[in-house]
Amino acid sequence: MIPELGHFALILALCLTVMQSLIPMAGAFTGNVVWMQLSRSLSSGIWVFMMLSFACLAWAFLHDDFSVIYVARNSNSLLPVYYKFAAVWGAHEGSLLLWVLILATWAYAVSLLSRDLPIDILARVLSVMGMVTTGFLLFMIYTSNPFDRQLLNAPAEGADLNPLLQDFGLTVHPPFLYMGYVGFSVAFSFAIAALLTGRLDAAWARWTRPWTNAAWAFLTVGIALGSWWAYYELGWGGWWFWDPVENVSFMPWLVGTALIHSLAVTEKRGVFKSWTVLLAIAAFSLSLLGAFIVRSGVLTSVHAFAVDPERGMVLLVLLLVIIGGSLLLYALRAPVVKGTSSYGANSREVFLLLNNILLVVSMAMVLLGTLFPLMSEAIYGEANKISVGPPYFNILFLPLMALVAFFLGVSTFTRWKRTSFSHLRQQLTKVLIASVSLGIILPLLITMQIKPGVMLAVALSLWIVIGLGKDIMDKTANKVSRIAGLRSLSLSYWGMQTGHFGFAVVILGICLTSNYSVEEDRRMAPGDSLTIGAYEFIFEGVEERAGPNYMADSATIQVLKNGNDYLTMHPEKRRYYARGDIQTEADIQVGFFRDLFTALGDPRGEGAWVVRIHYKPFVFWIWLGAFLMSGGGVLAILDRRYRTRVRAGSAAEKARGDRVTTGGEATV
Amino acid sequence: MHPARKQKLMIVLFILLGSMVTVGLILVAFNEGLNVFFTPTEVAEGKVEAGQNFRIGGMVKMGSVVKEGLEGTDIEFIATDTNKDVSVRYTGVLPDLFREGQGVVADGYLDENGVFQATQILAKHDENYMSAEVKSALDAGERKQAEAAMAAGQTP
């Protein structure tokens, strides 16, 4: 009964989204306020029914209702209860339900929090979101209904959740990632609304920015969690593989990063308008492309959702309608939204534009590398199978990011509209000297090795960090006291600096861990030992251990630091009862400056096993930096100017346009 | 020249330079990062030269995995598309889903003795999941074998 309720709720939600896509939009065109007002109540109704539907599926999982096919395939009565809940989004159908629920949640949040928004814009925004939701709901109900039942001969036991997914990482990674993906639908809908009305002003950018920042912050955390999960759960010790599925989550991020910066320029200076709109459309389109690639199985990837060509086709059609429609609208209407002010060749606008272009180029090369196998197959035929490996991505991506980091450092000291070269030179000389010399000296002193790549990366991150430190000092120098000065800086300024600081931390983490990791795969018999730096790993043997729904070969590895007892590690090889899957469970000791990573390979007779032991310096900084970036986004959302009620419309817009931005206001 | 035109010229030159550098980098990167996929039959037909990096896919032949008597973490097995076999040698930790009778994809190169020296064995998430590459390799292998059997039957 409960699953039918869930199914029914889905269908009701679909009815409401159809109304949502038609009525408020029609109201906006005819000026019917009642129809436009309907968008608010409809979005709350859609959200309530999606929640209800989600709750029903969760109920089916928690009560082991194996007559629901989706539950039978992805759960098991032995599964711990928190994994039963996480299993709701553990495979295609349920994760799609989560996706639509999140879409409905964003729309509901927009309707609740955008009280300052003129009703005609709100109606259009929610209507566009309603159209997207309709598409996905149709897709779900027709091809991937999670509530499908098998009432006759219902299995007595479920097939269990894929063991890789039985992990805290799974519980949090997809929701964050989807919050990010789907969150870009808000920016997308705002962009479509702007194209429809032809109104794209500073007020529009101010409404759009917090939503875009929020989506971007979620996506950043989602990708970081995915990378962290791959690092400790897949047992390979790597944190990024340039796998197609990683790439498709990374592309919206790159464009989203460009978008939040371009939006800043649009808000502050009223330029880059059509570029901003295009980025907003691109960010969401790439999210949809990601959904298509992951779920259609057109590309070989480690992420194997149950693959079904029919679903792929339906998604492709949905994709073409949404992307094609929005780009067509853009082509027709983009001339309407023109920039209103000018800027010099050496201004903050130009440096932000440069980084925007670099980010979009990076996205394009990731896209090319990801889709190239498909294109080559289409052109040269089935037999010609090609894959694009990490060297391709590294060769292209690293120089591009180095340029991004360099321009980022410069743009901190530029001013809107026009900056004199002498001002820039004066500001940057000291920063340049300090970062380059420290970048060369520090790695040399610490490791006694000369690695140009490391020196460049260290210099670049110092370039950013010293630059932003100097900027904060300069901005607070003329205040009564430093503390008063720090307090006078706006939250969005702090958000920008935190985000950029996080980027520098990521660069350092990636560079140091790639260059200085020690990775050993050894055959070890009980009593064998391996020394890496100050650490000695002693393999003591493997014992059997029973878990709740698996049996494990659990190794004991004693770790000595400088000859003293330090810790005991227990990497495991687990065999899950339900499916007989084998799963490596790495044991990792996380540290601020280094991780110790151990994983168990296969047995090699006489108690000997293949053991993987890694020493990974600064790997933690990769995720730390990502969280800092995300925190920067959150700080920017909390800025006061998004909370004060600004009267929308031409008067407010004019007032803003006249005001010259100075000091803490002149932030990105 | 008019300042506005000069500025436009600079922009055009900048874009031109940028795109040339990008295209150059892409060509270099493709050269380094592209892996062509070959089936064991294609390898047996001599389509690959020794030392050339490529990707091979097939099934791990039943009973072909050898661990005993090898150094350290070395392992040997035979990748097959049911038509032809290729010996594979690998040093390191195997992915969880590597086992006899299952699909396998490996990156590496052929040495002088015709043994595939794998630098990486790719793991797949799901037991029932077979990569499209392996599947078509196996299909092609079976087709070839059927053709060979037909040919043998016609000319006894």
Model description:
The complex is a heterodimer of chains A (668) and B (156). Chain A is an alpha+beta fold. Among the domains of chain A are: 1-166, no CATH class; 518-618. Chain A is 63% helix and 11% strand. Chain A contains 19 helices and 11 strands. The longest helix of chain A is centred in the middle third of the chain and has 33 residues, at 348-380. Chain B is an alpha/beta fold and 156 residues long. Chain B has 2 domains: 1-30; 37-154, OB fold (Dihydrolipoamide Acetyltransferase, E2P) (Beta Barrel). Chain B has 3 helices and 6 strands; from the N terminus they run αβαβββββα. Chain B has a 5-stranded mixed β-barrel. The longest helix of chain B has 31 residues, at 3-33. The interface between A and B is large, with 48 and 40 residues.
List the helices and strands and how they pair.
The complex is a heterodimer of chains A (668) and B (156).
Chain A: H1 2-30, H2 33-62, H3 69-74, H4 81-86, H5 92-113, H6 119-143, H7 168-197, H8 202-233, H9 244-269, H10 273-296, H11 309-333, H12 348-380, E1 386-388, H13 390-411, H14 421-447, H15 452-477, H16 482-488, H17 491-516, E2 518-524, E3 529-532, E4 535-546, E5 550-561, E6 564-569, E7 572-576, E8 582-585, E9 587-589, E10 594-603, E11 609-617, H18 620-637, H19 650-658
Antiparallel strand pairs in A: 2-11, 3-4, 4-5, 5-6, 5-7, 7-8, 9-10, 10-11
Chain B: H1 3-33, E1 34-38, H2 40-44, E2 53-60, E3 74-80, E4 85-91, E5 103-110, E6 116-122, H3 132-154
Parallel strand pairs in B: 1-2, 4-6
Antiparallel strand pairs in B: 2-3, 2-5, 3-4, 5-6
Quick overview of this protein structure:
The complex is a heterodimer of chains A (668) and B (156). Chain A is an alpha+beta fold and 668 residues long.
What keywords describe this structure?
heterodimer; A: 668 residues; alpha+beta; globular; disordered C terminus; B: 156 residues; OB fold (Dihydrolipoamide Acetyltransferase, E2P); 2 domains
